[in-house]
Amino acid sequence: MSQPVPRSLLYCSALHPEQYVKSALADVMVIDLEDGVPHGQKVQARACVEQFYRSQVAQRTALRINPLRDNEGLLDLLLVQALEHRPEYIVMAMTEATAEIDVVRANLCRDGETPKILVTVETPACMRAIYEVAATADGLIFGSADYAASLGVPIGGWTNILHARGTIVAAASAAGIPAFDTAHFNLDDEDGLMKECQDTLELGFSGKTAIHPRQIATINMVFTPSAAAYEQALAVVEAAKHSGDKITRLKNLMVGPPFVKQARKVIQRAQELGLKGEKHGPHDRGA
Q: Is this prediction's pTM over 0.85?
């Protein structure tokens, strides 16, 4: 059985293998060879990664590699090629063309299988080719810091990069792949994290990246369908079934095909996460 689409992806520098085990907190631990490692310590970081993957890894992990236009990215590819046990995901940084994804997939294919490829969308050039990139990748991650810096706008804003978030979700949906929102950079802003998670969930993101373990509980809670939402979705599908799939009324809601389609997605997501309608904590959000 395939693993469910992650809700949370927690970044950790490849230089600190003692922190890799924190993946138990997040759905996926992203071991970072790119921004999380100073240029002069890339060799040391790759040695840490190699040591970690020498044994069978029980946690779900991803490895963020350096851009392919940099020699460090090519060295990262050679590292992954040599690993006996490999990460579930490869996270590509600063990607601007589908050819880069093709290079990674071709070089990491082993016995017909390749780690899933998540592309970080963090440049206007990538945004220009976003639908082609999405059609080639296995998932998209919004890298808002570099994207905002490219535009010359404040990092961590909402309205100034809302266009990018919407475009990424639309491209991912068209390709049938998940999209993951950028990290929330203010570690002490719990209310802001909660609101940003709720807003990005409403936009259509499947999950969110994190830069500190304290953010994981909120992210996982928001991106998990509540018991009330699950039960409402079941009621919508049941109402449609009893009406012979005609437009019908459920309390104050007129139920038509789009509502049924959305409800089935909620049901599928809840069942992927093993919820099946039970309540899952004190922060139940309701329908």
A: yes
